[in-house]
Task: structure prediction
Amino acid sequence: MRSCMSRLCLTVAILSSVSALAVSVNISSPTDNASVTSPLTLRASAVPGSGHQLTGWQVYIDGNSTSAYSAYGVSGIDTALNVPDGTHTIQVKVWDGSGNDADQTITVNVVNHGVTVDVRSPGNGATVFSPVDFEARAVSAHPITGWHIYVDGGTDPVFSKDNASSIFGSVPVSPGTHKFVVRAWDATGAFGDQTLTLTVSNPPPPPTGNAYTNIDDINPWINCGNGCANTGGGGAQATTGQALVSSPSEDGTAHQFTISGTVPFTNGYWYIERNPSNTTDLPSGVVTSQTYSFDLLIPSAVRNAPQAIEWETQQQFNNVIYNTGWQALYANGADPTKMLMRTFLYHGAHWYPTGIWLPRFTPDSFHHIQVDETVSGSTIFFDDIWVDGIKYIPIPGSSGEQHPAFSPGGALTTKFNNAVQLDLNGSDTPYDIFIDNMTLVHNP
Result:
């Protein structure tokens, strides 16, 4: 009996090891057995084995030994494939740095007449905030000449656009569950559509307390590149810029932050410092509850460029540091359509996951972001994040749910700052963001 149990334990250990090394791949578009037009949109994501990075992708059609598409060093693919009429198999294969691989095969029926509509955001069944931001693309053998969006079976469109192969549209709608039809036409009069059922929520309740408002209208913010301790980095610095702009904006003035350079993974850090010499209404004690909110827009031309977008507040009071950093991690190694939300532990300069996965921000539209935090004793609690009226809560017990405050020793100047940070990706792709309506509400 003892020997049998040993073999059982060995088997479990081997299976656990194999599971940790496994690579997985998921094709999100098109679906298996779908009817599509050519070129068809192929989207897939993959997860490498533990401790490894994805190294390569290959796409094969009908078992052909020559790949129809290749990519390297990316966590996902999003491409257009030219496929002739008829029924075909598409195999997506991916490798990680260990040499392990995984693949998935789907069957599609290609018909080069008609129109295929691909709604990229929001996903079917999602809970959203009004106005609902739609991002969609259409494919046909002929030019796309028009778009309509209909709500709840209505015959009058709530959104229209002409002569465009893609749309980024906002549709105001009352709270509740609604059915949306997104339809596109081509030059022959043929059309295609996609139907989604969405739940529209109410906006978050307005915070109460002392407030710093229109923070985005301050110019310039202090900028310190990789030299700031908060950024978690050092050495080479990115090239950064900032400016007040009238467009795009919601209230007539927004703050544009830009980052570029030739060194991958460098960052830019901008902050507003409030101390006794420049601010008369500093908090009278440790801030025990606060709400940091703003509207953020990413231009469509750089929609996938960020490594990460980060924001934080930092209070220094009675020689203790209370940091509330949040990070939207684009380069998460798992899903090229999502952002992993992480929070910052100041002592150790490390980011920890909350378990919250959000859809990447739809470009060319302002998105309302609100984060709420509380402090009890020496513990900082990251209570929630709202994005466009949808509330997300860190998974209980996740490493990013709470962090301790930090007492470095020695005297610290009393401060209450807020900041924004942009990180360059591994290809040092330049990008910019626009922030409007920034408010920091605090108690006391």
About this structure: Confidence is low (pLDDT under 50) at residues 1-20, 229-233.
